[in-house]
Amino acid sequence: MADPLRILLVDDHPVVRRGLRAMFDDRPDMTVVAEAADGQAALDALTGTDVDIVLMDLQMPTGMDGVTATHRITADCGPPVLVLTTYDSDADILAAVEAGATGYMLKDAPPDELCQAVQLAARGQTALAPGVAARLLGHLRRPQPALSPREVEILQLLAQGLSNRALSKALFISEATVKTHLVHIYDKLDVDNRTAAITTALQRGIIRPR
Predict the structure, then answer these.
(1) Which residues are registered as beta bridge partners of 30?
(2) How far apart are alpha carbons 154 and 178 in whole angstroms?
């Protein structure tokens, strides 16, 4: 019998890690060898632990986020990274893929589906939740002007109700620069005001609801 896949769990919620550990450790072909509550802790764990696959959350309020950690792991030729998150916005998906993630799954996935994704990702094969795959295919079939990370950040702050002045203070840029970004955002989304921009961005999954 082959050795079980060695999994590193990265999630800031202890309850989530406990549930995942119980699920994987109940299988003869998988075992959790380490846990981490943020990206930096994951990098530290990898230095002293033999890992076949990293199961990575994206949004961790304290410490290094999942996208940054994924980029660091893949750039250093580390083990494959399978993202496991509650978010399926275009911004999150594209950021994870660009960072080098081998797969992208949602936390509400059935256990058998998640375990199959872990097996695929550990072999270096792409593992995507059905909805995520559909979003990526939609991008390929209907190419649209891509928003820059700064433009997505501004959209997310707009959705929180920030004014131009508040945006300039939050991002340490001038109000004139904010207005320039807004012009570019409106043009790319084919809208003419901030309400329409927020609505369109939410509908397309570019930003997350708050």
Answers:
(1) 5
(2) 8
Residue 163 host element (H or E): none
Banded model confidence at residue 142, pLDDT cuts 50, 70, 90: low
Candidates 40, 187, 70; CA nearest to 179 is: 187
DSSP SS3 for 21: helix
Q: Per residue in 103-122, pLDDT tens?
A: 999 999 999 999 999 999 99
Q: The dihedral of CA 91, 88, 85, 47: what is its sign?
A: negative
- Give CA–CA dist 57/70, Å, rounded: 10
Q: Is the Cβ–Cβ distance between 121 and 104 less than 8 Å?
A: no
Q: Which ranges of 102-174 does DSSP label H, i.e. alpha helix?
A: 111-122, 130-141, 149-159, 164-171
Q: Which residues pair with 83 in a beta bridge?
A: 56, 104
Q: What is the pTM of this model?
A: 0.72
